[in-house]
Every structure is written in structure tokens, then in C-alpha cells.
């Protein structure tokens, strides 16, 4: 009986250097579909999709003698890239989880000396010089320190080498850089790390399910045609890594599709009026739609997933921090973990 159940392979998304960026979904009040000409259009005749709302709110936990404490009790994090939108979102989520925020961060040379205030905490940003000395000092002061990296792609490899030299565990959500070199650096450093270009845990679960389906039912959609639309903020010029990952699964399922066929929507007006992106989230969203049609046009399937804002990624990052802290405390194997490992742990908030 158990042998017939769907099981995720142990290497799902363990090393994904070819998919450096994942982005995904959360909620929408309207549903856009791909028309015959490949254009996005609304469902007609008054039909309306039911929005999927991924709630990431964390309730406050009172800390009293003899009673439960917040899940992050005793853990300290240093958020590098704290002046960015993702860095600030992670700090807010970590603060809600009871994780101690170290008042130190690394940034660019231009940011050196700046004070970033988040959740009433003042964080001093250090530039590229003396980073190793600063990090070693912070690690000595906070022995349960975990670094969270949301910097920039060009800093990925140098940062990983720094964390390896100091021996500090880290969670990296930064995309880009030389991913092969990144994994090699961390593996040789023998430190604890969670590396994932996609920190949205529900998104990762969906992608893992797609991989399971493609591995166990290859060719199931043979002959079907595929149309893909993805909408992101105008600053994102390339196609989403999430879309590419999902498409690769459909290709294993027998669908013929080239990555350059992805319909990229970056115009804010079109995003609001056609796709249905809330105006307040035009500067930070990820709306995806995959439309499959049978050869005779009598059957169609649609997969849609939309994210507004960054809370889904921030909460997933905090879960990765708590996961890594547990591995460190239990003296588990020092290696590179990923969000599939975090999901399997089953202790997410």
C-alpha cells in the first residue's frame, strides 16, 4: 500500500543552480486567463475566481515563567541587506517570532555608517571593509547567531566565502551569483546553511508536487499546448525562475514549450487593468498563470498562483532560521539544507 503513495525524492530542489530565481503567489481578487492569441483576458459571463489568501500573521506569545515562549527564543540573527525591502520584511517577521535581531548588518560602501531603524531597533550598516573582523566579533558575542542574507547577486559568492571562513551558519535567499561555486564553497566550509532562491514555503511545496507528478507520470500531458503568463514589478527584466521550474515539469509531462514563449507582463497599467494586480502591489508582486489545452481543444487545465508583497518569503525565511537553529542545537550533520528539508521538518508556524 505505502509503495503506491506519492513520495518526494530526497534531492528535490537540493541543488538548483540553473533556477536562480523563484517567485510566486498569494492572493488576487480577479483572475486573468490567456486568450487564443496568447493575450491575457478576464473570465467572462460574470465568472470570478476564488482568491487564495495565504495568511502569514504570527500571533504574539507571552513570555512568563513556566509558560511557553516565542519559537525563536535564544536565537539571534544578523540580517545582511537590512536596508532593502526583503531585509526589512525578514526583520519584522523575525521580531514577531521572538528572534533577537543583532544591531549590525552588512551593506554596500555607500550604505556604510547608516542607521536603519526597523521594529524600533537601530541597526548599524557596515561597508565591505573589515567585514570579517566585524562578523567574528558579532559571532563571539552571540554564539547562537545565524546570518540571513538578502543582499545582491554580485555579493553572493564573496559573502558565502566570508561566512565559511568565520564558521557562522546562514540562511541565504539572495538569488544570482555563481551557484555552482556557491554550493562548492559552503560544502567545503563544513558549516550549517539553508540556501534557497525561493523561501515561500507554500510555493516550494507546490513546486515539489509538480516535480513528483512529472517524475511519476511522464508524458501525462503529451500533445497538450501550453501558454504561460507571468507578471512582476517592472524592475524584473528576466523571466521568473519559478515559471521556468514549473515549465520544466510540464515539459517532462510531455508538453512542448520553449522558455522564450513566456508572456512577460511588466507594464503597470496592463498589470492593474488586465492581470488584476492591486495597485498598491504593482511594485512588488508575482502573478503566474499556466494554461494547458488538449490537441482537440476540448479539455483545458489552468494553474494560477499569485503573490502580493513579501510576507510569504519573510515568514519562510524565519522558518528556515528556526529549522537551522534546531539542527545546530541537536548537532545534526553540517551541510547545505533547503526549503524542502524545512517543509519536511513539519514544525512551521
Automatic annotation (TrEMBL):
<comment type="function">
    <text>Catalyzes the conversion of 4-hydroxy-tetrahydrodipicolinate (HTPA) to tetrahydrodipicolinate.</text>
</comment>
<keyword id="KW-0220">Diaminopimelate biosynthesis</keyword>
<dbReference type="InterPro" id="IPR000846">
    <property type="entry name" value="DapB_N"/>
</dbReference>
<keyword id="KW-0809">Transit peptide</keyword>
<dbReference type="InterPro" id="IPR023940">
    <property type="entry name" value="DHDPR_bac"/>
</dbReference>
<keyword id="KW-0150">Chloroplast</keyword>
<keyword id="KW-0560">Oxidoreductase</keyword>
<dbReference type="InterPro" id="IPR011859">
    <property type="entry name" value="Dihydrodipicolinate_Rdtase_pln"/>
</dbReference>
<keyword id="KW-0521">NADP</keyword>
<protein>
    <recommendedName>
        <fullName>4-hydroxy-tetrahydrodipicolinate reductase</fullName>
        <ecNumber>1.17.1.8</ecNumber>
    </recommendedName>
</protein>
<keyword id="KW-0934">Plastid</keyword>
<dbReference type="Pfam" id="PF01113">
    <property type="entry name" value="DapB_N"/>
</dbReference>
<keyword id="KW-0520">NAD</keyword>
<dbReference type="GO" id="GO:0008839">
    <property type="term" value="F:4-hydroxy-tetrahydrodipicolinate reductase"/>
</dbReference>
<comment type="pathway">
    <text>Amino-acid biosynthesis; L-lysine biosynthesis via DAP pathway; (S)-tetrahydrodipicolinate from L-aspartate: step 4/4.</text>
</comment>
<dbReference type="InterPro" id="IPR036291">
    <property type="entry name" value="NAD(P)-bd_dom_sf"/>
</dbReference>
<keyword id="KW-0028">Amino-acid biosynthesis</keyword>
<dbReference type="GO" id="GO:0019877">
    <property type="term" value="P:diaminopimelate biosynthetic process"/>
</dbReference>
<comment type="similarity">
    <text>Belongs to the DapB family.</text>
</comment>
<feature type="domain" description="Dihydrodipicolinate reductase N-terminal">
    <location>
        <begin position="75"/>
        <end position="199"/>
    </location>
</feature>
<dbReference type="Pfam" id="PF05173">
    <property type="entry name" value="DapB_C"/>
</dbReference>
<dbReference type="InterPro" id="IPR022663">
    <property type="entry name" value="DapB_C"/>
</dbReference>
<keyword id="KW-0457">Lysine biosynthesis</keyword>
<dbReference type="GO" id="GO:0009507">
    <property type="term" value="C:chloroplast"/>
</dbReference>
<dbReference type="GO" id="GO:0009085">
    <property type="term" value="P:lysine biosynthetic process"/>
</dbReference>
<feature type="domain" description="Dihydrodipicolinate reductase C-terminal">
    <location>
        <begin position="203"/>
        <end position="343"/>
    </location>
</feature>
Amino acid at each position: 500500500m505505502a509503495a503506491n503513495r506519492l513520495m518526494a525524492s530526497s534531492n528535490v530542489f537540493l541543488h538548483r543552480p540553473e533556477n536562480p530565481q523563484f517567485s510566486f503567489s498569494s492572493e488576487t481578487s480577479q483572475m486573468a486567463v490567456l486568450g487564443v492569441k496568447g493575450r491575457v483576458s478576464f473570465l467572462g459571463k460574470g465568472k470570478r475566481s476564488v482568491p487564495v489568501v495565504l495568511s502569514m500573521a504570527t500571533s504574539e506569545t507571552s513570555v512568563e515563567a513556566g509558560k511557553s515562549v516565542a519559537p525563536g527564543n535564544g536565537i539571534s540573527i544578523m540580517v545582511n541587506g537590512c536596508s532593502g525591502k526583503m531585509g526589512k520584511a525578514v526583520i519584522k517577521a523575525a521580531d514577531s517570532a521572538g528572534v533577537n535581531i543583532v544591531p549590525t548588518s552588512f551593506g554596500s560602501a555607500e550604505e556604510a555608517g547608516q542607521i536603519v531603524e526597523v521594529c524600533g531597533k537601530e541597526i548599524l550598516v557596515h561597508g565591505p571593509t573589515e567585514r570579517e573582523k566585524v562578523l567574528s566579533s558579532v559571532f563571539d558575542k552571540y554564539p547562537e547567531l545565524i546570518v540571513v542574507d538578502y543582499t545582491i547577486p554580485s555579493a553572493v559568492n564573496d559573502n558565502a566565502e566570508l561566512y565559511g571562513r568565520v564558521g557562522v551558519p546562514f540562511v541565504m535567499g539572495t538569488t544570482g551569483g555563481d551557484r555552482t561555486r556557491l554550493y562548492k564553497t559552503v560544502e567545503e566550509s563544513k558549516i550549517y546553511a539553508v540556501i534557497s532562491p525561493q523561501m515561500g514555503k507554500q510555493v516550494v511545496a507546490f513546486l515539489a508536487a509538480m516535480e513528483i507528478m512529472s517524475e511519476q507520470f511522464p508524458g501525462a500531458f503529451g500533445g497538450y499546448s501550453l501558454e504561460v503568463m507571468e507578471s512582476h514589478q517592472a524592475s524584473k527584466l528576466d523571466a521568473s525562475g519559478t515559471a521556468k521550474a514549473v515549465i520544466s515539469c510540464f515539459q517532462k509531462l510531455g508538453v512542448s514549450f520553449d522558455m522564450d514563449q513566456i508572456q512577460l507582463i511588466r507594464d503597470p497599467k496592463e498589470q492593474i487593468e488586465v492581470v488584476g494586480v492591486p495597485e498598491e502591489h504593482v511594485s512588488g508582486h508575482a502573478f503566474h498563470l499556466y494554461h494547458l489545452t488538449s490537441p482537440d481543444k476540448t479539455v483545458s487545465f489552468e494553474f494560477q498562483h499569485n503573490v502580493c508583497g513579501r510576507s510569504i518569503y519573510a515568514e519562510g525565511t524565519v522558518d528556515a532560521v528556526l529549522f537551522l537553529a534546531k539542527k545546530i542545537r541537536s548537532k545534526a550533520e553540517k551541510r547545505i539544507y533547503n526549503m524542502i528539508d524545512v517543509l519536511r521538518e513539519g514544525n512551521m508556524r
